[in-house]
Amino acid sequence: MEFMKTIDAFVEDFNIPDEYISARLHSLFTKSAKKWYYKMRQDHGKHSWPWWKEQVISKWENDSWRFRMENSFEEAIFNIERDRPMTWFLKKKDRLTALHPDMSDTMQTLAKKKTRINEINVEKVEDTKETTDVSLHESDSEPSEEEEVPEELSIENINVSFEVTEVHTHLPQYSDEYMDLIHVQDAKMQKTKPARGKGYTAGSSCITNIVINNTEAKIHLDSGAFCTCVGKDYLEKVCTNWQDKLMPIEGITFSSASQNMHPLGIFEVEIILPHPAGSIRLKVEIVVMNNCTSQHFILGNDYLNIYGIDINNHKDRYYTMGENKRQKFAFPPERREITFIKQVKNVNKEKFV
Questions:
Q1: pLDDT (tens digit, 9 = 90+) per residue, 324-337?
Q2: Which residue range forms the structural domain that includes residue 286?
């Protein structure tokens, strides 16, 4: 450990007393090491620097410590969403130095070649983490053959697991028919896989509750829908006077997966998403369809984008609104029979935000 070599050099060159060294040890240790130091001092009291040096070597330079350090080194895979590149690289370097304190410059060069760390611009990775519209290109250049590497050196024990493609997987990927398929991995399931032939049973809808004109109704958060729409028959159950407020629509055609849709016009309305911590009101323009048979409103990709509604399928299913990711709107439980229309009494709109 470098700090012990430094202290030994100061003791040899300047004859520093043990009292001065012991007084500074608490500032050299951090986190769990500092807790260990205070516990040892409480149990054993004051001791000389040689005694403390022996305890440090016994604690951190044994086989068990090396095993834990090697595992930490192997498991530290770079994640662009979680890790800051500079911090990650420094931790990797510190762990490698701790495992191989006498590693020469030649071995450091070999380790860099194996991980291709020397081809990565760390500042560019930092910029990519903050703004994902910056491209990160790998170099295809081969290591120079002119560098002489001693044959007796071996780096087989330096098993570095850094993958440059880990950076790319979190950047926007653009469709390209000539794109190569590299590093294909099996996706990790978040829930138990259904029996074979029963995969469809794991599906859930994105239908949730809303309030329109003091009436409770249902709406489908459909990111695959081009626009927000509703069938005239279902709208009639919620807003009986919708035809008086209908705005014209011209010059555009609509279609579903199985048929052409016939728009009647645009109906502007306020939708309230109930939440115990503060409900949310959305002002939307809904395209009224003459031949839509769905028994719910459809909130399409237009207003999902406008209001920044994100649907989360990680374990618990919920959706969030805008930048407030802490306020989660849960989807109601699935039911075979659903009553779509219910009058809501005494709705105080001033409580909604």
A1: 888 888 888 765 44
A2: 206-351
Q: Is there a single domain that holds both residue 107 and residue 43?
A: no
Q: How confident is the model at residue 167 (pLDDT cuts 50, 70, 90)?
A: very low
Same domain, 43 and 118: no
Final residue before a domain boundary, out of 43, 61, 79: 61
72 and 56 housed in the same domain: no
Indicate if 257 and 347 belong to the same structural domain.
yes
Q: What is the pLDDT of residues 195-210, one digit of tens each?
A: 888 887 777 788 888 8
Give the least confident one: 36-40, 70-74, 289-293, 345-349: 345-349
Together in a domain, 249 and 314: yes
The pLDDT score that the predictor gives to residue 135 is 44
Query: Which three-class secondary structure string do you get for the chain?
Result: CHHHHHHHHHHHHHCCCHHHHHHHHHHHCCHHHHHHHHHHHHHHCCCCHHHHHHHHHHHHCCHHHHHHHHHHHHHCCCCCCCCCHHHHHHHHHHHHHHHCCCCCHHHHHHHHHHHCHHHCCHHHHHHHHHCCCCCCCCCCCCCCCCCCCCCCCCCCCCCCCCCCHHHHCCCCCCCCCCCCCCCCCCCCCCCCCCCCCCHHHHCCCCEEEEEECCEEEEEEECCCCCCCEEEHHHHHHHCCCHHHHCECCCCCCEECCCCEECEEEEEEEEEEECCCCCCEEEEEEEEEECCCCCCCEEECHHHHHHCCEEEECCCCCEEEECCEEEEEEECCCCCCCCCCCEECCCCCHHHCC
Domain count, the chain: 3
**pLDDT, averaged across the chain:** 73
Task: Write down the pTM of the prediction.
Answer: 0.45
Mean pLDDT confidence for 51-65: 74
